[in-house]
Amino acid sequence: MFTRRVVTLIATFVFATSAVAIWSAQGDVRDGDTDTNVVATSGAEAGQTATSKKKGGLFSKIFKAPVNAVQKLFGHDDSKLSRMTERDAARFESAGVVRVEDNTTERKQVSDDDQSAKACLERGRQLLEAGQLNEAIAQLSRAASLDPKLAQAHSLLAVAYDQKGLHDRAQDSYKRAIEVNQNDPDALNNLGYSLYTNGNYRAAVDRLKRAAKLAPNDARILNNLALAQARLGKYDDAYRNFARAGGEFNGHANVAALLIRMGREDKAIEHLEAARRIQPDAPNVLRQLAELYDRGGNKEKADAARQALQAADAKQTVASTEER
Q1: Contacts of 16 (CB under 8 A, 6+ apart)
Q2: Which residues of the chain have pLDDT under 70?
Q3: What is the pLDDT at residue 157?
Q4: Contact 232, 202 (CB under 8 A)
Q5: What's domain 2-242's architecture?
Q6: pTM assigned to the model
Q7: What burial class does residue 206 get, using C-beta atoms within 10 Å of its C-beta: 0-12 exposed, 13-18 middle, 19+ buried?
Q8: Burial environment of residue 78 by CB neighbours within 10 A (0 to 12, 13 to 18, 19 or more)
Q9: What is the DSSP-derived secondary structure letter of residue 56?
Q10: CATH of the domain spanning 247-316
């Protein structure tokens, strides 16, 4: 009985600690590149072009984290149930990939006897979506070998290599896809984002600029380009591309968030004030301004921002009441 109580107390403590940590982490709760996650909180599309893997919401992450911790505490190991390790998954989540339709997309039934390039491509796609990476690589490699001009085979092969953490091979396959079709903005975007997540920011900017020229209205490409430019310290360029993707308000808000992460709070305040001039009642902007002014010792401006926040909240409450 005593042992059971101890186990229960430990499990409860782990659950509570994990939940608090996840709620307070903000941009770090998601897998992948932190800057991408930071701007994603404003609704900015960035990173992967598409993925067949659907992640759970915040509640599911809060629930799963303590469960995993308890399993590790008592020696439970379910790694044999999955072909892809957690490390492989983390690497995949941070890599830009090509378009992969989700599992609700109707698939062609491919006969095992059909060994054509297109049949291998389709089998490879389905295996990739199922997380069977080794088998997917085998099929996609065969498709690319049978038809070297089959750009999608190279692209999906790059996705599989990225999932495996074989980023050099992934980039080679991305490059082959681009060689087959130099005017494919998705392939350029995916290569650019892969370079970005691996710290090759200058090369990433080069590929993403080319992608943006081919698809000037693609918000994902523009946001990826802005992220890479921010890593190079080119915040004015980053703002322009964020603004092209989602408007001036989002441009200022996204750059401010990245500047705060870099510890450049004075510059972040400039962008937040610019965002405030566009949307005076934006709660998140006012809240961040109050915190930054507080940290900078400017109590007068911090109090003014909080008063504006309270007024905005009151206005929103009245509006909600009237709608009812």
Answers
A1: 66
A2: 1-32, 41-42, 47-113, 322-324
A3: 92
A4: yes
A5: Alpha Horseshoe (1.25)
A6: 0.66
A7: middle
A8: exposed
A9: P
A10: 1.25.40.10
